[in-house]
Amino acid sequence: MQMISEMMMTDAEFELLRALMYQQSGVHLTEQKRDLLKGRLAKRLRHHSYESFAEYYDHLKNEDPQGTELQEMINAVTTHKTAFFRESHHFDCLRERLLIPARQAATRGHQSPIRIWSAGCSSGEEPYTIAITVAANLERLATWDVKILGSDIDTHVIDKARTAIYPLETVSDLPSDLVRRNFLSGKGEQAGLVRLKPEICNLVKFGRVNLMDEHWPFRGKFDAIFCRNTMIYFDRNVQRRLIEKFVRYLKPGGLFFAGHSENLFWLGDFLHHRAERRQLRGIRNASRSHRIGRRQGSRCPRQHPCRRPQSCRTTLCNIESRFGQRLGFINEGPFSTAPLAFGL
Ligand SMILES: C[S@@+](CC[C@H](N)C(=O)[O-])C[C@H]1O[C@@H](n2cnc3c(N)ncnc32)[C@H](O)[C@@H]1O
User: Going by fewer Cβ within 10 Å, which terminus of the chain is more open, N or C?
Assistant: First the structure.
């Protein structure tokens, strides 16, 4: 049998496989990703003893009625890089804008359920980080109704997330008291591993959700949705569809978090135009956000609705979605590529 590294992936094979991947997962593989696709599918070809990608594609189309191999292909091609407290300022934002207000409301006798979704959660570090943040900020945790959902299209990473077991190195950069509070250390055969404590695990449930599916299996809405470093693999058509859908799954005032490299400002008609009108009408929230921005001292992105890119130094602003819901997002950099958090 040919070595996979010697095996060619023809233009036609690449087009067929990337179209299938796009159709099934939304993941858009550019021409530069040809070697990545070839490399990641190599194991699957070896597994079936196929000698060409055309044979493998034929298998996917004609010999895979249950979609088992299709799932294996998706598992192999998706990228799963993640970490505990990745982009840690998002968890500060979660504390300040959701958990502290929830705690304050509870002291006034209004204790509401808290629902958070980590969409594209990979091996679980993100939803467990959310759970750690929740546990650290809600006193008498057992009295709260908190549910955190971690979902991903990849069934292998979801299985791994459910174990809640990670190599010790994954927590080596975290403060030692945080690790002691939330993780158990492996002993004997488990040496070199850590496991989340049961009270953290109990807050999180995992399931497979393909964001491309027309119907998402939720009845209620979320206080916060994290979809970070996932939409970056989708093209703009898919990103737009998803953002419009995420917005409908947020409670009023909810938060949406996207990764730092996910620039959503091009969704101008959806996110910005009505904001300009709001601002022209002199709505208080807009000027409040400018004050916050000045205090924090970062510059407004060029496309910011205030249209004063040179003078406005805004990091937090309130805008409206096309549906008239109020959104706020946080932007830390001059060019809008910074982390976003918005809610309606
Ligand atoms: C790079 S990881 C991001 C993990 C985590 N959100 C973070 O920021 O650390 C991207 C995840 O998105 C998942 N993904 C890709 N396409 C998806 C889809 N159509 N539906 C659900 N998850 C998807 C991948 O399987 C992968 O685990």
Answer: N
Q: Does domain 89-226 have CATH number 3.40.50.150?
A: yes
**Does this chain's domain 4-77 share its CATH topology with 89-226?**
no
- Residues 309/301, Cβ–Cβ less than 8 Å: yes
Domain boundaries, the chain: 4-77, 89-226
Question: How many residues would you count in the chain?
Answer: 344
Ligand 1 binding pocket (C-beta < 6 A) is 25-27, 78-82, 86, 120-122, 126, 152-154, 157, 210-212, 228-230, 233, 259
Residue 211 makes CB contacts below 8 A (sequence gap 6+) with 26, 119, 120, 153, 227, 230, 242
Class of the CATH-defined domain 4-77: mainly alpha
Which amino acid, 258? A
* Span 312-336, pLDDT tens digits: 222 333 444 444 444 444 333 222 3
Q: What is the residue with the minimal CA distance to atom 11 of ligand 1?
A: 120
Q: Is this model's pTM higher than 0.85 or not?
A: no
Mean per-residue pLDDT of the chain = 80
Q: How far is the CA of 122 from the centre of ligand 1 (A)?
A: 6
Question: Token pair of 50, please?
Answer: 């196929």
Backbone phi, psi, residue 51, to 5°? -110, -5
Contact 133, 94 (CB under 8 A): yes
Give residue 20 CA to ligand 1 midpoint distance, Å.
18
The residue contributing the CA closest to ligand 1 atom 2 is 80
Where is pLDDT greater, at 156 or 342?
A: 156
Comparing 74 with 311, the larger pLDDT belongs to 74
Q: Provide the 10 A C-beta neighbour count for residue 251.
A: 15
Q: What are the pLDDT digits (tens) for 200-237?
A: 999 999 999 999 999 999 989 999 999 999 999 999 99
